[in-house]
Design goal:
CATH architecture: Up-down Bundle
Order of helices and strands: HHHHHHHHHHEEHHHH
Radius of gyration: 23 Å
CATH topology: 3 helical TM bundles of succinate and fumarate reductases
Number of strands: 2
Largest sheet: 2 strands, antiparallel
Strand content: under 5%
């Protein structure tokens, strides 16, 4: 947060041209996407490990406060992707840098052009949910907002734990290496840093089709408001993705990750590639941002590097575990009680089919 404030403050003081603003926007959108990535990987793993918590997390995302955030997230992803491609092209064709101002304007225009139909599609889901279906009673909106904030508190506790681990690692490293060798100097280029420079460009190109496909399926075709209402899962055949009488977010994930074509769990493989590339790309980018502001303080710089490394390792481990663990039908049963709680929280009537399910009347069907 300190680095973000410093970036914004110094940008306003410097008042540079379009190149400066595109740099700032690229950095801010990248940090925003990384923060969401951490949240998204952990809560999606709950669909497997803690089904009731996943149901509540999705309910939180269907609240007004997160609805606005979803539009901001999609903007951040699309702009960051297009501007990243611009950077890659100019890095490999330095003679084109004289056109960087025009290219920066073109990136912004292309972003807005792409987002126009995307936002219309997303808005249609929002309108259906809030107005047509009246999924949240007007008197219950604030209850849902408060609930949404409370549900995110475990993430804050987890972040504090990761930060503490990073500080401990940095302190141990400092005891071994000392703090005087690089004080007052920017670290020199090394084969490792050259590798990461190339990785950021290559992974950025590979990520674009993967993340755009994910956004299209999970935010436009079937957005966060649909996964608790859809009878079929986008990207699967009906025979592999037909959801029961009372849809739930957990069942949506169950059918999506259970879908196999030619003996391959298509969406597990897809999400694994996305997880690895985006996590490594995102947290290495965050490392660049944080170390920009800590290069003259060895301990702060090492803490920043440790924080990014530990967080990325945790997300890769948790995300991969969720993707590879065998899916059991029991997770759907565990999610139904939480689904009933959400109906009551929103002021909706609990469907008779759900009540029957909870009473055991539909057991075995």
């Amino acid at each position: 947060m300190t680095s973000l404030v410093l970036t914004v403050r110094e940008t306003l003081r410097y008042r540079g041209a379009i190149g400066q603003w595109s740099w700032v926007l690229h950095r801010l959108t990248g940090v925003g996407v990384v923060l969401f990535l951490a949240l998204h990987v952990i809560d999606t793993s709950w669909a497997v490990f803690y089904p009731d918590l996943y149901v509540k997390a999705i309910a939180a995302y269907q609240s007004p406060i997160f609805t606005l955030g979803e539009f901001g997230l999609v903007f951040a992803v699309v702009y960051h992707a297009f501007n990243g491609i611009r950077i890659v092209i100019f890095d490999y064709k330095p003679e084109l840098w004289r056109h960087q101002a025009q290219a920066a304007v073109a990136v912004l225009a292309l972003t807005l052009l792409v987002l126009a139909p995307v936002f219309l599609g997303m808005a249609s889901h929002v309108i259906d949910f809030y107005f047509t279906e009246q999924a949240i009673a007007g008197s219950k909106v604030m209850d849902v907002v408060v609930f949404s904030i409370i549900e995110q508190l475990p993430f804050i506790a987890g972040f504090v734990g990761v930060l503490a681990a990073a500080i401990v690692l940095a302190a141990l490293f400092s005891l071994v290496r000392g703090d005087a060798s690089q004080r007052g100097k920017y670290p020199q280029a090394s084969p490792v840093e050259r590798f990461w420079w190339g990785f950021m460009r290559l992974s950025g190109i590979l990520i674009v089709p993967l993340v755009f496909g994910h956004l299209a399926l999970m935010h436009v075709v079937q957005g966060v408001f649909d996964i608790t209402a859809a009878q079929e899962v986008a990207g699967t055949l009906a025979t592999n993705g037909t959801i029961g009488v009372v849809p739930s977010a957990v069942e949506f994930v169950f059918h999506r990750w259970s879908y196999a074509a030619g003996g391959v769990f298509v969406w597990r493989v897809y999400d694994l590639f996305l997880l690895v590339l985006v996590t490594l790309h995102g947290f290495n980018g965050l490392r660049y941002v944080l170390t920009d502001y800590t290069s003259f303080n060895d301990f702060a710089r090492r803490t920043s590097v440790a924080l990014c490394t530990v967080t990325a390792a945790v997300l890769l481990a948790v995300g991969a575990a969720a993707l590879f663990v065998p899916l059991e039908k029991d997770i759907i049963n565990e999610a139904m009680a939480a689904t009933a709680e959400i109906y009551e929280l929103r002021g909706e009537e609990v469907p008779e089919a759900l009540e029957a399910f909870l009473d055991g009347a539909t057991e075995g069907e």
